[in-house]
Structures are given as C-alpha cells and as structure tokens.
Protein 1
Amino acid sequence: MPLVKFISHDGYESDVHVTTGTTLMHAAVDNGVSGILADCGGACSCATCHCYVDEPWLEKLPAADDVETQMLDFVMDPQPNSRLSCQVVVNDELDGIVIRLPKSQI
Amino acid sequence: MGAEHAVIVGASHAAAQLGASLRQGGWEGKISIVGEEALPPYHRPPLSKAYLAGEKHSDEMLIRPAAFYARSGIDLVLGTRVTALDRANKVLTLHDGGTIPYTRLALATGARVRKLALPGHDLDGVFYLRDLDDVNRIRSYVGPGKSAVIVGGGYIGLETAASMRKLGMKVTVLEALPRVLQRVTAPEVSAFYSRVHSEEGVNIVTEAAVESLEGKDSVKAVKLADGTLLDADLVVIGVGVMPATELAEAAGLAVDNGIVVDEFARTSDPDIVAAGDCTNHHNPIYDRRLRLESVQNATDQAKTAANTLCGKLEAYHTLPWFWSDQYDLKLQIAGLSQGYDRVVLRGSSQSGRSFAAFYFRDGHLLAVDAINRPKEFMMARRALAAGQGADPARLADDTLEIQQAFL
C-alpha cells in the first residue's frame, strides 16, 4: 500500500498508507488528517481540498483537467504545484508522495 | 456525576462533522452518533446523481470509513430511532425502549421529504428520494426503455431526470409552477435548464396538475388534471423537504421553521446544540434568519456546534453555497439570490452550456449561479464572503477576465 505523507501548514506530519486507487482527498479525510475539508465529497465542485504536491511527484501526476485548473486559479495562495486532492488518485508509483496542506481552504 | 457523554441525534453530514470536530476540539468524554439508517454517515448529494446512475458503489458513499469512528472513539448507534428527549433527566428514549443518557446533546436530525397525498400514492413503484434505501429501491425499477415520471422540477427532480436519461429511460418531469427551479433561480436559468433537458430528451411539463397515480398494484400511469395520461413504470416525487423537528418540538425547544439556534448553534436549552438542515439560524452576511438544505451548512454549522460543546464560542459566519451536477453541466451556486431585483448574465443562456447569472439587489451582489464557469463561482464566492462588490457591466463583458469585474 503506497504511503502518503501529509504535512500541515505548521509542519505537523501524518503518514498514511492507502489502497491504490484512493484519492489524496480520501486518504486525508479517512485518516482524520485536518486541513482538507472536501465539502463536496469529491465532485470537484468546492475547491476545499486544495493541496501542494512536492516536486518529485508532481510530474508523475496526470495533468489537471480544465475545471480543476480554473478552480485552482482562485484558491487561497495558489502555487504552480497546487492540485485539488480529490482529483489525484494514488498508485504504487506515487509511494512516498509528499503533500503539503495550505493554511486555509476558503 | 457520570462521565461526559456527547450524544448526536442523526447520522448524516452534520453528525459526521460534529463527531470529528468534537474530537479535534478536544472533547475527551464519550461520543455517540445515533441514526435511523443502517449505514455510517454517507454523502447524500450523489444519491440523485452518480449513485442513482449506477456509477458509485455504496462503499464509496461513506463520508468517512467506519474504522475512522472506531479509531476516534465515536460510537455509531445505527438502525436506531430516538423517540423521545427528556431534557430534565437528560436522557433519550429509543424505538426499542432502550435509553441513552447524555450530558450534552446535538440535534442533527436533518429534513424529511414533503409527501403528496395523491390518489395512488401508495402504489408500488412510487418513490421519494432522500435516503440510500430509497435509491436502492428506485434502482430495482430502472432500466433502458422504461418510463419514469418525476413529480417536481427542483434540483432533485432534475438531477434524477438526468441520471435516468443516462440509464436510457424515457423521462417526463412534471412541474406545478410555470417554470422549473422557479423558487431558486432567475427565469433565464430556468429556461436554460428546460432547454438542456429537452435537448437531452426529457419531456418537461410545466403548470402540471397531477390528479392521480394510476395502477392496480404497481403504478402504470400518471394522470394530469387536463386528462393527459403519462405512462410510468415508476414515479419519483421530489417536492421539497421539511425540517425534522418533532423530537425538539415535543421536548419543548424553540422551533420556528426549524430548530431555532443562536450564532453558536445553541438551542433554547444551553446543553443542546443543533446543526444542519433541521436548524433555523441567523446569517450575518444576509442579515436574516435562514433554514438551509445543504451540505455546506450541515458541515460548517456542525463545526460551530462542536466548538460550542468544547467551550469555544465562535459565531457561525459563512457564505452559503451549493452545487448540482446534471449531464455535462456543473452548476455551482454561491450566495442566496432571494430578493434580487436585477440579473446580469455573463455568456449566453440561450445557446451552449456555459454561462453565469449574477444576482443583485440595490446594486449589491447577492449571489451567482455558475454553469460550467468555475472561475466565476470561485471569484464570486470569495468576493461575497468578503463583502466585495462587482460591476454589472464588466460582469456582462465576457471578454474581460472575471477578476476585472470585481471592485
């Protein structure tokens, strides 16, 4: 089971093992990682699951689609490595992925 | 004195958040979530969308896995209905005669469907749509080529229609008012949804007066007052919900179109909070009392309620927002449009499938309905929450970046 490391904005680290096929959003919510709200439950409608993907893994992810890209323009403090965690599916290739969480979702 | 015990009545979005937020907020006592349904709290919005269309399994519907509650020390008391609340003795009575004592109580009882007393309403094949069980039953009736009649042209009715078209069914939507979504959107948005549903093959009948549901054991047709007979293998009635306030009312809590709560989600009993669809609360952004039917309100108000129980008073202050997925349409709504005196369109509602309707009152932006316009939604949600205004002429100019329309 691939490992996902979440790092909160104030540096708190949570390591969670998830089943391949789980989204980063579910990896956080299912394991009580705070900092991801995911109000819409993964419908890509709310942009409250914003996260930053550390560089080495960023290029391994499929590119964000048009809706996600447009929403990301308007999250708090968008960065080039911003993603909506509900749109990123974890697989074995992403084992060890490091995800940083923003200070605020809205 | 026994140990602290926070009991949450209801087991949907607000309850799931309350439980998690109580632990996050440092509640050290026992926590129980008591719900009538068999499943742990699950996502309700996909019921009329991906779940009905068969694109999601019930396992994927859970807000958090059952293991989360166990790990967090939250007891799930499922399949259990609370029949009475004794505030003097701080105890709940259950449908099986059992009791649960509490030291602090959270009511997250949600809403129930509004029922229509139509002749034939108890025929097989006639459904309401609120719970997973409802949709499981509906799913045993759906299939390509079958006919569905949906009573109610609100979001639930239209989402159900879209899902059933995906399943290859013949679908008719009956709306009593002159246009679909009449109570919640501008005429332009209603016309847009009517057009798209027509393009997708749905028969929409407005100003429809349903006279009866016809059939021997199972429903076979829907009869309208003008004599029209519509074939139906199943009927789904989606004509709104009412707050589930019986328990609160019987216990003597203040109830007025929902359980009355203050800005800290407190009911008229200081030991009892309430959150979600069942509450009537004041919204400081719109400066009026509201009863909202939304995930956002359930989740956010639950956080306020949990804070209150943990002794941290933080006033509930959020911008309501909503979403609805139908076909390839992603509708995102920020704010409340009720009371608007002007609608400004960005993009065309008459052709294509992407535009936004901005609602104003006295020159102030109230809300936006954004259809396949995530930027407009995100910008407006942020601006509305911050009390930032917008320029109608610039909003209407689709060649400008959306940011340029906000002052």
Protein 2
Amino acid sequence: MELLEGIADRFNYWIYVILMMIGLFAMISKNNLIKKLIGMSIFQTAIILFYVSISYKEGATIPILYHDQVHGAHHEEASVTETAAHHDAEQVAHEASADVHAEASDHAEHAASSDHDDHAVSHEDHGSLEIDPDLFVNPLPHVLMLTAIVVGVATLGVGLAITQKLYGEFGTLEESEILEQIKSAK
Amino acid sequence: MIITGLLLLQAEKDFPDWGDTSSPANSYRLSQHYITQTLHETTVPNMVTAVLADYRGYDTMFETVVIFTAGIAIIGILSVIGTGGNREQFEPKLSEKKPDLIIDTTCRLIIPIIQVFALYVVAHGHHSPGGGFQGGVIFGASFILLALARNLQTAQAWVPENRILNLAGIGIFIYAGFGVAALFLGGNFLDYGVLTKILPGGVEDARSHSMLGVEIGVAFTVTAIMFSIYSSLASNGTMKEGI
C-alpha cells in the first residue's frame, strides 16, 4: 500500500522514468534503425515531461499575464508613442476596464470572460503590479524545453536522412545485415 | 537497463513533490525574477516568449542556427550530386492522376486559414501562447499539406528549392541583425534596450518590438527548414516527385 501511495504521489517521476527506459531499451536492443530513432524520440519526450512537470506549481496557471494586469501597467506608462493600431486596442481596453470600475457586479463577468476567474484576487491590484510568483508556473523550464523540442526535431530529421541514405546504399534497415554487408565487403 | 531504471527511481525520492511551490527550481530567485519583473522590463505578458527572445536571446539565436545547420546537413546527406549512378532505381514515377476533388477543395479552403493562423501565432506570440518556432512550424505544415495533397512540384512553385536556404538565412540575418544593431547603438549584443533610439516607444517597448522582430526571423527559418526537411526526405533528395 505504501508503495502504491508513493507511486501516486510522484507519478510524474515514475512516468518519466518508465518512458525513458522504454526509449533506452528501444535504442539499445532494437535491430531496426527506424525503431532506434523512435526510441530516441521517446527518450526526448520523457526528458521534456520531466522538466515541464518540475515547473508545475499547485494552483498556478500558465506563465502569461492576464489582460487586466497588462493593461493596468499600460495605464501608468505614457502610451502616446504607441503605434496607432495598438493605441486603438488600448482605447478599447481602457473603456472595458472603466466599465468594470463603474459596475462592481460586472467584475465577475469580466473575470470569467478572460478565463482566469479562479484568481480574482489578482484583479484587485490593477495598477500596483504586485505579481505573486506562486500564481504562475515556472517559465524557465518551458523555455528550455521549447528549445529542446527544436533540437529534437533537428536530430530526428538528420537521423532520418542518414537512415534513408543507408537504405539506399544497403537495401535494408536492419543493423545486423548492414554490419554483415560491411564485413563481407572487406 | 532495469538497473538504471531502479537507480533513477531511487533518486526520485529526493525530488520535490508534485506542484511544490517551494521546490528549488521554483523558489530560485531567477525564476521569481522572470515572473515578477518581465512585465516591468519588457511590457511583454507572455513570460515564456520574453525569456526565450530577450533574457536568453543568445541561446535562441544559436537554436535557430542549429535547425539551419540541420537543414543544410539533410540536404547535404541526401543530395543527388556526386552519389554516382545508383540513383535511377529510386527514380519516382510522376503521378498522372488528377487531384481528387474532395482533397483539392479541402486544401483550397484550409491552407489559407492555416497560414493566417500561423501569422497570427507569430505576430501575437509575445501576448498570447505562440511565437516564432510554433508559428513557423504551422506555416511550414501548410506547405507540407499542399505537397501531400497535390504533389511536391505544386508546393515548390510556392517555395522553390533553391530559395529555401536563402529564406532560412534571411531569418537568421534578421535575428542577428537585431543583435548587431544593438551593438552599433552602444549596447551589448542582443541587448534590445538601446534600440529605443530607432524604435518607437520607451526602453521597454523597444524590447517588446525587438522580440517581435526576432520571432519573425525565427519563423522564417523554421518555415523554410521544416519544408526543406520534408521535401528532402520525401523525395529522397531529388527534390522532384516524392510520396
């Protein structure tokens, strides 16, 4: 029972270890080159899952500020130098928030429309911009994984290209047959 | 391998709990700084884009170079030039069939929408989820869809193979151009704050606009390389008729 609870408490780590081992197994023991590449992909996915799960915080949302927080900030700064299109959007937002101030009952509706109604507290500090770090998940692992995905695509693409070339040369994708052909050529 | 897995599971006991706000990764002051100060310093609400394009701009620039290099490598590996005469057996037959009505109509309807959405994802990437990498991939996917639905030539009428690498290079030049422009205006490389001298708005707005600029550069490269990888792999390097 304790073991099961331990797994349930830390299921993200268990899943990442299991996925990683599946990928490692495929990379080490499969004979087919395409299957090896699939294993490499699974391995990368496991690492991405690990990082993203670390960045999670209980009760936090995605690391993008709400509409109100941003436009609260814009009110403080001089928005005269903004581009015209931006300025129009600013005006609309300004009117919207003015409505909110006029009618307190509108507040809830406005919060619901911006899909962040569970954090009504942060709507109170409009201009003060006190952002609570515990309300947003950690952005840094997300950034790192964004670049890791790109590297993953690049390695997978190059791997597939090399595999295709090998198939053109040897007519097979099985590693053992390719090694035999190389040996017999010597 | 099972031993490795058991070792990793052993180490898992020392890791922080799921959703723990005081875990080392979450309580470190760099992350806290990113969350609390991003809006003050850049006026960009999307912290991920801000960290990606501004705080870690150097990293992201070479990330773009990585996929550019991958594209060159794939073209280099699969290129037909200098591989001898054993290429004929893979010479694909051009499909004479007319395109299917349903597929053709669906593509006509859906590809413009995909492309507009991709441009939105790029242009709005620092305000909502999105950015150069994501938008670039969507834009590249629209060309891949065209190539799958019709044939590779139709898609390459839009993105010719000999221009693909130029397009990718333009993306990197846009990115590096922002860095060099900052250098010339007296700042550090990729320090967008000094670009306020040539861009409208204050220092924070200059950072925001430069972020949009480098995202557009990234999108150029990613679009070009995505389609290049597809067309190289699908046509076995000949860039003619593929799948």
